[in-house]
Write a structure and sequence with these properties.
With 163 residues, this protein is α+β, with helices and mostly antiparallel strands. The protein contains five helices and eight strands.
Length: 163
C-alpha cells in the first residue's frame, strides 16, 4: 500500500527495497525514515526493537505523538507491505487520532501476533501533502531531468536574479 502524498525517490525504488526486505523476513514491513525529533508529532512513529541493518523490529506504533513523547524518530512514510488481517481489523476499527480511523491503530493489533518490521529507506522523500514540499519535489525532479533540466535551471536562475 502507498500513500500518494509521499514521493519517494531512490535507486532502486523504495517499494523494491521493501519487497526485497519482505522476502527475507515476511510478515508486515512498513517504511521507516529518520526525522528530526521536533517533527515526530506530525507522523506515525515506530517504537523500535532490535535492529538488523536497515530492518528494525517494530514493538509498537504511535500515531502523531504529542511533542516530546515519541518513542523514536523513525516515522512511517506511507509505504506498507501488510498481511490481509489488517483489513479485517480496519472493518471494525473505531476512530483514533484526529477523529479518523487510523491504519496505525489497526497495525498495532498485529504486532506480537505476526513478524513486524520497519525498513529504512535509502533515497529522498518529498512530502507532497505540504504545498512547499510539492513544489520542492517538482523542482528537484525537474532539475535532474535530462530533457527539461536545463530549461528549468535557467528559469530558476532568472527568478532568483529578480528577487
Amino acid at each position: 500500500m502507498l500513500l500518494p502524498d509521499e514521493l519517494m525517490v531512490g535507486t532502486p525504488g523504495f517499494m523494491k527495497q521493501m519487497v526485497e526486505a519482505y522476502a527475507r523476513v515476511g510478515g508486515n514491513v512498513v517504511g521507516a525514515l529518520e526525522v528530526a525529533a521536533s517533527e515526530t508529532h506530525k507522523y506515525g512513529i515506530i517504537s523500535p526493537g532490535k535492529t538488523d541493518g536497515r530492518l528494525t523490529e517494530v514493538t509498537a506504533l504511535v500515531e502523531k505523538p504529542t511533542q516530546g513523547s515519541a518513542p523514536s524518530n523513525l516515522m512511517i512514510p506511507g509505504r506498507y507491505i501488510l498481511q490481509p488481517e489488517v483489513m479485517r481489523i480496519l472493518e471494525k476499527q473505531e476512530k483514533g487520532a484526529g477523529g479518523e480511523i487510523q491504519l496505525t491503530d489497526a497495525m498495532l493489533q498485529l504486532i506480537g501476533q505476526q513478524p513486524f518490521h520497519g525498513f529504512t529507506f535509502e533515497g529522498q522523500r518529498y512530502d507532497c501533502g505540504d504545498k512547499a514540499g510539492f513544489i520542492q519535489a517538482n523542482l528537484a525532479l525537474a532539475l535532474v531531468h535530462e530533457e527539461i533540466g536545463p530549461v528549468v535551471r535557467e528559469f530558476a536562475t532568472e527568478l532568483l536574479r529578480q528577487s
